[in-house]
Every structure is written in C-alpha cells, then in structure tokens.
Amino acid sequence: MADDTSTRGAARRPPARSAHPSTNGAEIGYAVVGTMVSGMAVWGGIGWLLDNWLGITLFFPVGVLVGMALAIFMVVKRYGAPDPVPGSGARTTSGTRRNRPVPGNQTQKGQR
C-alpha cells in the first residue's frame, strides 16, 4: 500500500484492448457448421411437412436445397471476407489494372 503512487479517486486508464478478436477459428467454424445444418434441417423439415400434408414427395429435397442455399448466403454475408489488418499494405484499386503509369514517368518501352 505504501508503494502505491496513484491517488484515490483519480481516473483510471481503460484496459488495453487486444489486437485479436474475441472469437477464434474453432468458434467460427462451429457457427458455420451449425448454420449449414440448421438451414437444411429447418427447410427440409418444412418440405417434409408439406410432402406429408399434400401427399407428394417433391418438397423435401427442394426444402433441403433451399435451406442449404440460404445457409450459404447467411454464412457468406456474416463471415464473408475478413477486415484488412491495419498497416498490412492491402489496398483496393478501382478498375482492372493494378498500376497506372505516372504521367511523364515512362520506361524505354513506353508505359510501365
């Protein structure tokens, strides 16, 4: 206590935030698998109920396929592309060319 240099009632600094996100790869993987399985199960179940109600066998496979498609859409929407790491130098460019020559800065063969 005697070595404590902080004064009572003084504002404390907030704790440093971690550079890593709070979720790891396994948690994201389980979430993706759970989304895929539940999408197929829910929409396949709806198709199965419609099959039993109407007396035909068309809606179950259609429901499974629709469930898989919607689950893939949700996974891509939620976990699609990771955010770029600050300072990594990753840049996005518009157009199809990566580099455009600077006017007046040409090589022997013309453009860079």
Automatic annotation (TrEMBL):
UniProt superkingdom: Bacteria
Annotated TM spans: 28-50, 56-76
Keyword entries, A-Z: Membrane, Transmembrane, Transmembrane helix
Annotated spans, Disordered: 1-24, 80-112
Name of the featured protein: AtpZ/AtpI family protein
